[in-house]
């Protein structure tokens, strides 16, 4: 099983490249499902076939699904949402407004990610290709629910036996208590989060692929996503620069565009080395339909199998030192920068703020269990890596 995420800023070409990759995979014999949660239904436009909220057969070995987040949330997690609504209503919030507030944060992106677990466990496909939301949001949804789930499941299981007591005091506190079904769905949801994180973190199974156009903002966005992915310990195996004006275009109207694109292509190659970069030309017309999608897949991959692992970057590593622990996080594109503005513990994780050429970046880094027994000492950037040091207080006492 392979899981391939495509991400990039809006308009970079995620839907087209996702569909083209899926079509190429199917042509090479892989049972393939392409998944989209884009409310604009761009996947239907790309394949020129109505795609539904259940897997829709496009060709032999090629399936597509347009996730309906509202339907999925109501069917799978409606009990939780109803309980949240009841909390707001108990405080006098209008029912219509209560439902708006109770909508799951980033529901569209989140539900499509949770579907990954369902399809991986079904074992019905060889490859899942996801046309995801813009970069930062996608990565947060991959990681942050798992961060919550690491401790919340245990808390909920402790609370569950107290439900009957909560019902008794409900009139006193003025808030409705969650029923057993709410608790059951909470635990189920958090378990799915845990499974999702396990799938995403498996570097042999999952790859994040970055898409950008050869322009300043798009390339900067690509750098940011690459940094975030490394902080989240998600393997990025390929970058694609889309809509490159072909060399044979000599019209003077495009002269400045071509000069700028050449500059940004060189910048991207330098910034992401040794990550493989593929270039896709700007097609003379909108890419729609299986014929043009097949042409895109052929141009991108030629005789290659798109399911292959193109690159496996360094994972977060932990080194034991005599005096404590060192956690090393690879951060490409930071060789020129040595500033770590802030590092602090947030529960079982670290909140890190670093300075890069694309501004300040804050993110969370999961810590090994042994680090919880140690004191955070310092952090520094060195040779494109973030080094975080912990001191074992027991070692310091032994030195006295």
Q: How would you describe the overall organization of this protein?
A:
The chain has 400 residues and is α/β, with parallel strands linked by helices. It folds into two domains: 2-70 and 104-301, P-loop containing nucleotide triphosphate hydrolases (Rossmann fold, 3-Layer(aba) Sandwich), CATH 3.40.50; 317-399, Sandwich (Immunoglobulin-like). The protein has twelve helices and 15 strands. It has helices at residues 14-27, 42-47, 69-90, 95-102, 107-122, 135-159, 163-173, 180-201, 216-231, 255-272, 290-301, 393-399, and strands at 2-7, 32-36, 56-59, 62-66, 127-131, 206-212, 236-244, 277-281, 317-321, 324-330, 340-346, 349-356, 359-366, 375-382, 385-391. The strands form three sheets. It has an eight-stranded mixed β-sheet with strand order 3-4-2-5-1-6-7-8, sandwiched between helices. It has a four-stranded antiparallel β-sheet with strand order 9-10-15-14. A three-stranded antiparallel β-sheet has the order 11-12-13, covered by helices on one side. Helix 1 (14-27) packs across helix 11 and helix 5 packs across helix 8 (180-201). The N and C termini lie far apart (54 Å). Mean pLDDT is 76; it is low at 145-178.
Mean pLDDT: 76
Name of the CATH homologous superfamily of the largest domain: P-loop containing nucleotide triphosphate hydrolases
User: So, CATH architecture of the largest domain?
Assistant: 3-Layer(aba) Sandwich
Kindly state the percentage of residues in helix.
Answer: 40-55%
Spans of at least 5 consecutive residues whose pLDDT stays below 50 are 145-178
Query: What characterizes the major β-sheet?
Result: 8 strands, mixed
Measured by DSSP, the beta-strand proportion falls in 15-25%
> How many separate helices?
12
Q: Biggest sheet: strands side by side, in what order? A: 3-4-2-5-1-6-7-8
Spatial separation of the terminal alpha carbons: 54 Å
| Overall strand count | 15
Q: What's the level 1 CATH class of the largest domain?
A: Alpha Beta
CATH fold call of the largest domain: Rossmann fold
């Amino acid at each position: 099983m392979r899981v391939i995420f495509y991400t990039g800023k809006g308009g970079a070409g995620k839907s087209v490249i996702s569909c083209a990759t899926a079509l190429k995979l199917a042509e090479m014999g892989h049972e393939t499902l392409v998944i989209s949660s884009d409310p604009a239904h761009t996947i239907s436009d790309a394949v020129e076939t109505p795609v539904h909220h259940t897997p829709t057969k496009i060709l032999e070995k090629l399936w597509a699904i347009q996730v309906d987040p509202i339907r999925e949330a109501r069917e799978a997690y409606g009990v939780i949402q109803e309980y949240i609504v009841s909390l707001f209503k108990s405080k006098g919030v209008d029912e219509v407004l209560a439902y708006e507030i109770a909508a799951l944060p980033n529901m569209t992106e989140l539900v499509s990610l949770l579907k990954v677990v369902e399809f991986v466990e079904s074992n019905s496909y060889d490859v899942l290709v996801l046309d995801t939301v813009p970069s930062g949001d996608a990565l947060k949804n991959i990681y942050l629910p798992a961060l919550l789930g690491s401790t919340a499941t245990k808390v909920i299981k402790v609370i569950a036996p107290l439900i009957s007591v909560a019902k008794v005091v409900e009139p006193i506190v003025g808030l409705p208590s969650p029923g057993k079904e709410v608790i059951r769905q909470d635990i189920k949801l958090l378990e799915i989060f845990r499974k999702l994180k396990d799938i995403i973190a498996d570097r042999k199974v999952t790859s994040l692929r970055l898409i950008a156009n050869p322009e300043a903002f798009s390339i900067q966005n690509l750098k940011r996503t690459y940094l975030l992915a490394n902080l989240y310990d998600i393997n990025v195996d390929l970058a694609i620069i889309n809509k490159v004006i072909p060399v044979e275009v000599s019209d003077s109207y495009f002269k400045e565009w071509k000069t700028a694109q050449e500059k940004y292509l060189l910048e991207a190659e330098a910034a992401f080395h040794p990550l493989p970069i593929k270039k896709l030309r700007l097609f003379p017309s909108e890419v729609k339909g299986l014929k043009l999608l097949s042409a895109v897949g052929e141009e991108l991959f030629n005789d290659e199998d798109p399911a292959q692992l193109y690159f496996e970057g360094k994972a977060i590593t932990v080194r034991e030192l005599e005096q404590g622990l060192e956690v090393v996080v690879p951060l490409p594109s930071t060789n020129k920068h040595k500033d770590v503005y802030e590092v602090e513990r947030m529960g079982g994780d670290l909140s890190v703020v670093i300075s890069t050429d694309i501004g300040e970046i804050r993110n969370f880094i999961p810590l090994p269990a042994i680090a919880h027994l140690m004191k955070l000492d310092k952090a520094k950037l060195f040779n494109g890596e973030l080094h975080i040091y912990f001191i074992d207080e027991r070692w310091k006492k032994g030195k006295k």
